Each structure stands twice: as C-alpha cells, then as structure tokens.
C-alpha cells in the first residue's frame, strides 16, 4: 500500500510542475520529440532517485517517421535500441507505445509482449513507465523539446 501512495505522490509531483515546459503544446504530429529520464522509483524500497543519483542516463527520441531510438548511458557505456512508436488513448488516457525491432535490456515492462513498452502520459510534458508493477523501477521522463 505504501508503494501505491508513493506512485500517487510522484504522479501529482510531475503533473503539477511549474516549469516553462508547460508552454509546450502537445501535438502528436510535431517532431522530433526528445524525452529524458528525470526520476526513478526503486521498487519495493519506496526510494525515489533523481539527478546525479540516477544509476543511468536515458533518452527517448521520437522521429517524424514514427521511429524511435532509446539510448541508455551507464558508466560511459552506451546502449541503444529502436523501433516504431504510436500514441494510444485508452479510457481517455494517453499512452506512448514503443514497439522494439529486437529484444533488448532497454525494454522496461511487465507485459507478456516482449518487444513492447508502454508509457503513461499524465501530462503533455511527462511520461511514466518502467516495471514497477513487477517490483522493478518506475521511470519518470520529461519532454525536453
């Protein structure tokens, strides 16, 4: 139950940001879109990491041709994967769905579809993903452009 409240608080935090990024008008047809990992919940511990405390740096670049590249940098080691993406609306909520070309460690998902990662879009400047429901990290991204 503690974990549930942690996610609710994180959702509110990212949804109520007062940064100038609120001026970005979301249009799923405007590209490129650059998303950057800004926070991480660490699963069962309930800890939240951000900034220099993050164990890796990660970006998601969405291109006009519906292709994406996800890049993760860990200890100066760069790992990239890509595929096609789409935006999906389910019960009036927006999601970004990443369909990877090949299996990779960059996919953070609890789903049974090995090549699919789904991220919830609570606002036009934030994404929430990861594998928190299955005791992995919850990942929080902000749109940079």
From TrEMBL:
Organism encoding this protein: Flagellimonas ochracea
Domain of life from the UniProt record: Bacteria
Protein name: Lipocalin-like domain-containing protein
Lineage: Bacteria, Pseudomonadati, Bacteroidota, Flavobacteriia, Flavobacteriales
């Amino acid at each position: 139950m503690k974990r549930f409240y942690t996610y609710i608080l994180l959702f509110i935090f990212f949804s109520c940001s007062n940064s100038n990024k609120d001026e970005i008008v979301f249009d799923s047809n405007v590209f490129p879109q650059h998303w950057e990992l800004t926070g991480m919940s660490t699963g069962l511990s309930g800890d939240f990491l951000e900034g220099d405390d993050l164990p890796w740096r990660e970006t998601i670049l969405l291109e006009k041709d519906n292709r994406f590249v996800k890049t993760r940098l860990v200890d100066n080691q760069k790992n990239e994967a890509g595929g096609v993406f789409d935006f999906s609306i389910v019960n009036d909520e927006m999601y970004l769905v990443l369909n990877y070309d090949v299996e990779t460690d960059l996919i953070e998902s609890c789903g049974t579809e090995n090549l699919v990662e789904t991220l919830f879009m609570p606002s036009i400047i934030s994404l929430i993903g990861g594998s928190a429901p299955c005791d992995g990290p919850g990942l929080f991204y902000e749109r940079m452009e």
